[in-house]
Automatic annotation (TrEMBL):
One of its GO terms (molecular function) is DNA-binding transcription factor activity. Pfam families: HTH_20 (PF12840). SMART domains: HTH_ARSR (SM00418). This is ArsR family transcriptional regulator. Residues 1-92 form the HTH arsR-type domain. It comes from Sorangium cellulosum (Polyangium cellulosum).
Length: 119
């Protein structure tokens, strides 16, 4: 049963190890060995994470002689951003309302504080 790209991308991003791998790849292409270094796990476990990222289209792997190199592919992340953008206005409205509320609280505190000092 085929799944949509967005679901596959979110499933791949759900794991902190895979997010850390993507974060590392932001600075450029590197070998599987280099990607595995910071993790306390076996090479097969790292390879499993890489397969999930590759199936989601988030990384591309290539062979360079005996080295296996990985690089990030931002295409699926653009789809996540596009999807999240539909909800951005909701958060902005809520943050704007919270800003107004905080300003009202500060104004009340200032006026209340002045009255107490005058007593």
């Amino acid at each position: 049963m085929p799944t949509d790209v967005l679901s596959t991308t979110f499933a791949a991003l759900a794991d902190p190890t895979r997010r850390a791998i993507l974060a590392r790849l932001r600075s450029g292409e590197c070998s599987v060995t280099e990607l595995a270094e910071p993790f306390d796990m076996s090479m097969p476990a790292v390879s499993k994470h890489l397969r999930v990222l590759e199936r989601a289209g988030l990384i591309e792997r290539r062979r360079d002689a005996q080295w296996r190199r990985c690089r990030i592919n931002a295409g699926p992340l653009k789809e996540v951003v596009d999807w999240a953008e539909h909800y951005r206005h909701l958060w902005e409205e809520r943050l704007d309302r919270m800003d107004v509320y905080l300003q009202e609280l500060q104004a009340k505190e200032k006026s209340h504080g002045r009255k107490q000092r005058g007593k």
